[in-house]
Model the fold of this input.
Amino acid sequence: MKRIKIKRLTESDTSPGQVLIKGWVRTRRDAKGFSFMEINDGSCLENIQVVVDSQLSNYADVQGITTGSAVAVTGNLVPSPGKGQKWEIQATEVEIISLAPDTYPLQKKRHSDEFLRTIAHLRPRTNKYGAVFRIRSEMIQVIHRFYREKGFYCLTPPVITGSDCEGAGEMFRVTSLDPDDVAKQGKMDFSHDFFGQESNLTVSGQLSAEMFAQALGDVYTFGPTFRAENSNTSRHVAEFWMLEPEMAFCDLSGNMDHGEELVKYLVDHALDACGQDLELFFKFVDKDLAKRLEILTSKTFERMSYTEAIHILEKSGRKFEYEVYFGIDLQSEHERFLAEEYVKKPVFLYDYPKSIKPFYMRVNDDGTTVAAVDLLVPGIGELIGGSQREERLDVLESRMEEMDMDKAPYWWYLDSRRYGSVPHAGFGLGFERFLMMITGIKNIRDVIPFPRTPGSIDF
Done:
């Protein structure tokens, strides 16, 4: 008999009949002449109740089944007389695949997120984290669908790179040099390393995407990126996923149009396809979440310049921890005020001072700002960061000199401005930030399967 998922059994077109399910026991209790098990197979939030008659040949073994045990149940699917459930299974055969000991840490009680991070290998079996990671899977698939429908090409950029896209220097070094030899010499001689030069894990696929956008038109990258930022905040991890579209013949306004369309599309799909799982977060995680998601899909996103935002913050009368003045890199408190209290909906901030932005952003006619853009969202802060890229070779070289950058490693990047350069733009959307936004979860460690943070690389 073919195995059926519990999600399929809960659908409206299900009919009575013999079924086979395999899953993990959430609870088991004995009554007079019967044993009742609640089983979940990870396909949805709902459990299915299994009723085992004492006449079953291995009933004594069934009575020894513990929470967390894995079982396979064959039986008859029938309407359930119990409240809160449409169907139950009257077992004709129960196979014990694996019996969990009494030390199984997930018992029938609410566990804290902090505790569950210490057992990240087991937390997907809980309702909350099962829902998170089903939503994560669905969103990964729909991102690819969105870009396929729009005619974008998917690019898989290198994970190991010799370029620092952001210029911040917070990168993980990759080397095959023997640590003992390095210690003896007192330095790292990269000429003897695997690639013959310093190499790192990538912080972005953007530079690679720019090259392909100027050949294929519209492309996107979606994969892991790495940042050696020694931060233990609720918004940072060392390994995270980034979605980075890059569009040829596109300016800053078109970039914002695309970002708004993408976010609305993804949220709409989540509400439609992940309704049952999202309901858990509406009820138990964030009571205001449903209202915020409705605003995301129904309201046109605001747009304001960085200069205008600074003026608003200065005139707000609010006492911020970090002083507000033109030229600062806005802090979370500033971003949250603008999105949550001033416009009360998502807002694009654009045209930032060039002094706080990377070399590749297009310099505006004022010579002071660049065509950069961030999307700020209520409840989360920055979701998207991007720019129109500098397509003019002379200006790009001037910017690199101004920032005291060595142009030699970027010879290929400069070449793209030498041969058929066109206006182009793109952005990065932090995938985990997006998941935090649609679930109401406050800590980024709880929307990624196995978080990598300073001092922790378990699992």
